[in-house]
Amino acid sequence: MIRFLEFAGRPLVFFVEECGRIMLLLLSTISWMFRPPFRIRVIFKQMEFVGVNSVIVVMITGAFTGMVLALQTYHGFRMFGGESLVGSTVALSMTRELGPVFTALMVTGRVGSAMAAELGTMKVTEQIDALNTMSVNPIQYLVMPRIIAAILMLPVLTIISDFVGIVGGYFVGVNLLKINSGIFIAKIIDIVDLEDIFNGLIKAAFFGLILSLIGCYKGISTIGGAEGVGRATTQSVVLSSVLIFISDYFLTAVMF
Amino acid sequence: MSNLSIEAKVGVFVVIGIIILGYMSMRLGKLGFKMDKGYEVKVYFDSASGLEEDVSVEIAGVEVGRVSKVLLEDGKALVILRIDSNVKLRKDVKASIGTRGILGDKYVVLVQGSSAAPLIEPGGRIVSTTTATDLDSLMNVLGEVAKNISTLTRSFANVMGGEKGEASLRSIVDSMQAVAETLNRTVQENNEELVKIIANLSEFSATINEISSKINKGEGSIGKLINEEDTVEKLNGTLASLKEITEKINRGEGSIGKLLNDEETVETLNSTLTSINDYMQKQESFRTYLDYRGEYLFDSNDVKSYLSLRIQPREDKYYLLQVVDDPGGVESVTDITTTTNGVTTTEHIEKKEKNEIKFSAQIAKRYYDLGLRGGIFESTGGFAFDYYLLKDRLTLSMEAFDFDSDSNAHLKFKADFTPFKHLYITSGFDDFISDEGNESFFIGAGINFLDEDITTILSDLPFYK
Amino acid sequence: MIEIIKISKSFNSQKVLDDLDLNIDPGKITVIIGQSGGGKSVLLKHIIGLIRPDSGQIIIDGIDITNLNDKKLNEVRKKFGMLFQDAALFDSMTVGENVAFPLNEHKRLSRKEINKIVDDKLNLVGLENVTHKMPSELSGGMRKRAGLARAIALDPKIVLFDEPTTGLDPIMRESIDKLIVATQERTKATFVVISHDIESTFTIAHKVAMLYQGKIVAVGTPDEIRSSNNSFVRRFIKDLRD
Ligand SMILES: Nc1ncnc2c1ncn2[C@@H]1O[C@H](COP(=O)(O)OP(=O)(O)OP(=O)(O)O)[C@@H](O)[C@H]1O
Ligand SMILES: [Mg+2]
Question: Which of A85, A198, B315, B350 has its CA 20 to 30 A from that of B102?
Answer without folding.
Answer: A198
